[in-house]
Amino acid sequence: MKVVYIEKPGKIELVDKEKPVPKKGEALLKIKYCGICGADVATFTGNQPFTTYPRIPGHEFSAEIIEIEENNLGLKVGDIVTANPYFNCGSCYSCNRGIVNACTSNETMGVQRDGSFAEYITMPIERIYSGKGLSAKTLALIEPFSIGYHASKRGNIKPDHKVLVIGAGAIGIFAAISAKLKGATVYISDVFEKRLENALKFGIDGTIDVSKENLEEKTKELTNGNGFDVCIEAVGQSSTFLDCINCAAFGADIILIGNGKKETTFNHSILLKKELNIYGSRNALKSDFLELIDFISSGKISVDGIVSDIFDKEDALKAFDSLVHNDGSKFKVLVKMS
H-helix or E-strand containing 11? Predict the structure, then answer.
């Protein structure tokens, strides 16, 4: 079979690997679509702090079940599905408390273990989720949506809240949509006008183009000088974390999704002065996946419009390069594996 293979930072190619054979309790999946996450791009460029090499990237995917044993989940050959790509140990302190998404020995597909950019993979049956009739393209969006959705649940977002999301990439937009589902008024900021225009298609209340507007001044204007009740950081830069602190209201929640390698220096007294609540958000839970599949299959949400490009697997390098040199016109990029 063909797999997308990152031997080391900057070197990616399509290579041949042996087709996997499922073990007891596993299913054989034929991958349909893979989404390229910002973490995958960071793995390609060498900026992902958790990645080990060489590595097959990918953890956003849809697939067709090719082989599966009898199971109590109703899954069968031919089903179009998605899956949970975060492998937890089941025995650490976090796992024992049910915080399996923050397992101390977590291995995420495409990061600490090989991922979904392959024609076939095996997967533990309990990690596979029925697509409930959703298309393969849509199911490839469930995992990135779950990241923003889980993050939105970390904070105390209420219908009367004003929320700022910093970063209008796919994860930021999914976080903004999730905040809208809670009834909040949501604004999103970015340096790319095209990204902000795309965000408005999903019902976001307003945008802030920080290449042209001063974020703190705009915050005062939009919040009557109070600051935002919740700030969600979806970039992973030191400067955008500080922006969240500066734009947050006294007593506000700050939720961190963006992941990066750079250290941040600031006077921590501002956290005390404003009595801010800082929440990290890592991965997602099974419940997040299932809730989103139900939301979308019921017609309550449509997210397909976030896909800007689809590449064939033979053009995977072009797909990754398009995101490395993204001018803001690339939102969610999918690679068709079969």
Answer: strand 11-16
Which tokens hold the place of 269? 């007294």
- pLDDT at position 260: 75
The structure tokens listed for 249 are: 């209201």
Identify which of 88, 65, 84 has the alpha carbon closest to the alpha carbon of residue 75: 65
Phi/psi zone of residue 289: left (φ > 0), alpha (ψ -120 to 50 degrees), beta? alpha
Which has the closest alpha carbon to 155: 260, 258, 230?
A: 230
Tell me how far apart the alpha carbons of residues 168 and 58 are, in angstroms, rounded to a whole number.
21
Which one-letter amino acid corresponds to residue 164? L
pTM over 0.85: yes
Ramachandran region, residue 124 (left: φ > 0; alpha: ψ -120 to 50; beta: rest): beta
Task: Please write the tens of the pLDDT for every residue from 118-172.
Answer: 999 999 999 999 999 999 999 999 999 999 999 999 999 999 999 999 999 999 9
Residue 14 has a pLDDT of 95
Residue pair 229/163 in contact (Cβ under 8 Å)? The answer is: yes
Strands (E), 267-313: 277-280, 307-312
3-state helix, strand, coil in the chain (%, to 5): 30, 30, 40
Distance separating alpha carbons of residues 133 and 138, to the nearest angstrom: 10
DSSP category for residue 20: P
